[in-house]
Amino acid sequence: MKIGFVQFAPVFGEVASNLARAKTLLAGFDGDIVVLPEFFNSGYLFVSKDEVERLAEEIPTGPTTTMLLEIARAQNIHIVAGLPERAGERFFNSAVVVSPQGLLGTYRKSHLFFEEKLFFTHGDTGMKVFDIAGCKVGVMVCFDWFFPETMRVLALAGADLVCHCANLVLPFCQNAMVTRCLENGVFAITANRTGNDIRGAKRLDFTGASQITGPRGEILYRATAERDEVFSVEVDIHRSRDKQLNPFNDLFADRRVDCYGAITTAL
Ligand code: ACM
Predict the structure, then answer these.
(1) 167 C-alpha vs ligand 1 centroid, how far in Å?
(2) 264: pLDDT confidence band, cut at 50, 70 and 90?
(3) Could you give the number of structural domains in the chain?
(4) Which of 56, 59, 92, 112 could lock onto 86 through a cystine, CB 3.0 to 4.6 A?
(5) What is the average per-residue pLDDT within 53-61?
(6) How much distance in Å is there from the Cα of 224 to the middle of ligand 1?
(7) Has 218 been annotated as catalytic?
(8) Ligand 1 centroid to 48 CA: how many Å?
């Protein structure tokens, strides 16, 4: 199986040109599963509810999901991509999972970052795992990585691969994904954006360096911090099914769930 990502710099509010750029880059993708960044169609730095209302789209009828469905069908690929979702009166930071046959589903970001909390509702889907050609694919969106429970729950649900749509602004994730993948024995694709969003006095710089990480913590590829990139790599995806570290240690069987009660208790 060949897995990869698209990395680029969306321009805030310029949905048509962001979609066109993503389509051009996707045309160069050679593989089975490709991940695009969080909010790849809209840009990230919302400063008003009006903007969210204007740029959020219904899934699957909005222009972004419609385009992704067309591309997935035409190129015979699976796409995981982030976009602002409108669902009635509520707005979510979502990721769609699109196959050549149609929409497989939507994940809504569980852990909202910083001022996202002003505009978006916490995800209500829970952690989701999709079946893509015998590969179990978990999905998370950016700041979800900061909570180790996210990837643990996905891995326990059988995920071989975690598709991670990101707009990273802190310098920690790419290195941390080595540990996340190692401790769960899974592959991950972090598709991050580059460039910046400058909105009046507010500015965010995004770190690029999209990364594919293997189940023993190997960095299979890390992109540049600045350039647009389309990348894919062939992997033996079922390496993730071997959780045995040595003859005595198994990543899942050795868990001491009798000691972990506080992890599932709210403060
Ligand atoms: C983030 O969750 N976009 C940092």
Answers:
(1) 5
(2) confident
(3) 1
(4) 56
(5) 98
(6) 19
(7) no
(8) 17
Alpha carbon nearest to ligand 1 atom 3, residue: 167
- Mutation test of ligand 1: which of 167, 174, 204 has the most ligand atoms closer than 8 Å to its C-beta? 167
Question: Given a cut of 90, is residue 263 above it in pLDDT?
Answer: no
Taking the CA of residue 44 as reference, the ligand 1 atom at the shortest distance is 3
Nearest to 103 by CA among 132, 144, 146: 132
Question: Backbone dihedral region of 239: left (phi > 0), alpha (psi from -120 to 50 degrees) or beta?
Answer: alpha
pLDDT digits (tens, 9 = 90+) for 87-121: 999 999 999 999 999 999 999 999 999 999 999 99
- Catalytic site residue from 51, 85, 136, 142: 142
Supply the range of the domain harboring residue 167. 2-264
167 lines ligand 1 (CB under 6 A): yes
pLDDT of 267 above 90: no
- Residue in 109, 116, 135, 229 annotated catalytic: 109
Q: Which two tokens stand for residue 262?
A: 């506080």
At 212, the pLDDT band (50, 70, 90 cuts) reads very high
**Quick check: 266 pLDDT over 90?**
no
pLDDT higher than threshold 90 for residue 213: yes
Question: Is pTM, for the whole model, over 0.70?
Answer: yes
Q: Ligand 1 centroid to 258 CA: how many Å?
A: 33
Closest atom of ligand 1 to 170 CA is 4
| Chain segment 234-247, per-residue pLDDT in tens | 999 999 999 999 99
Q: Is 210 in the pocket of ligand 1 (CB under 6 A)?
A: no
